Amino acid sequence: MMTSFIALEGIDGSGKTTQAALLYEFFSSNGLNSILTQEPGGTPLGLSIAQFIKSNRGTTAFAESLLFNADRAEHVEQIIRPALVNGSHVICDRFVGSTLAYQGYGRGLPLEKLIDLCDEACQGLYPTINILLDVPVHTLDSRRGIGNRDAIEASGAPFLDRVRKGYLELARKSPRQWAIVDGSQSIREVSMEIQSLVRPYIYG
Ligand code: ADP
């Protein structure tokens, strides 16, 4: 059986967590094994890193990229690869694309170096498909509760707009690895589109 590794990407509030859960339900209701995981936070190390970054606004971009990739190295070895080997599909809320979009396009680190760093961390294990939930930054205002902002979200609209455009550029540069979904549609519409995108990867 073919197993697929599906990464959901997009700026904070674009609907990744919502859609990851719906995709997990879709797999389950079709009798397919899958795991739902996330970066950072898919491992105990990742949870600590996520907490640290949330509560330390001054972390430099480079340190941030190392921390996220430390989590990724652990996550790939302990969770993602074993699941795929055991015949499970993997749904991952954020992966390498997030580092490139946030620390690269958003915070200005050189993309080539980040690509090398991410490649080391994931040991060449990349998603079968990255699904970008694309939403204009202003859409988020109506979605996000006050108090729901972490250090990165608090960087503001111009930052998130750079990240969004970075994601779009990544997706357009590698159309075989990326699919762009209009994340401003209803939750149901987005989820139907994601299901039709993943079908070929599941059933071959
Ligand atoms: P992310 O994981 O990308 O940060 P979430 O899935 O947590 O995003 O969604 C952020 C907020 O927006 C949640 O309150 C969620 O219910 C809401 N939301 C998600 N998708 C949609 C959508 N398509 N339309 C309207 N609201 C949405």
Supply database-style keywords.
binds adenosine-5'-diphosphate; 55% helix; globular; single chain; 8 helices; alpha/beta; Rossmann fold; 204 residues
Describe the protein.
It is a single chain. The protein is an alpha/beta fold and 204 residues long. The protein is 55% helix and 13% strand. It has a 5-stranded parallel β-sheet with strand order 2-3-1-4-5, sandwiched between helices. The longest helix has 25 residues, at 61-85. The site of adenosine-5'-diphosphate has 12 residues, from α1 and α8.
Instruction: Say which molecules are bound, naming each kind only once.
Output: adenosine-5'-diphosphate
Largest sheet: 5 strands, parallel
List unreliable stretches of 5+ residues: none
Query: What order do the SSEs take from the amino end to the carboxyl end, as H and E?
Result: EHEHHEHHEHHEH
Coarse shape: globular
CATH domain fold name = Rossmann fold
Number of domains: 1
Helix content: 55-70%
Q: Specify Rg, calculated over alpha carbons.
A: 16 Å
Secondary structure category:
alpha/beta
- The CATH class is identified as Alpha Beta
Q: Indicate the mean pLDDT.
A: 92
CATH homology superfamily = P-loop containing nucleotide triphosphate hydrolases
Give the CATH architecture.
3-Layer(aba) Sandwich
The main sheet orders its strands as 2-3-1-4-5
The count of helical stretches stands at 8
- Using DSSP, what is the number of strands? 5
N- to C-terminal distance: 9 Å
β-strand percent reads: 5-15%
Record the SSE blueprint.
Layout: E1 5-9, H1 16-29, E2 34-38, H2 44-55, H3 61-85, E3 89-93, H4 96-106, H5 111-122, E4 129-134, H6 139-143, H7 157-173, E5 178-182, H8 187-203
This protein binds adenosine-5'-diphosphate (ADP).
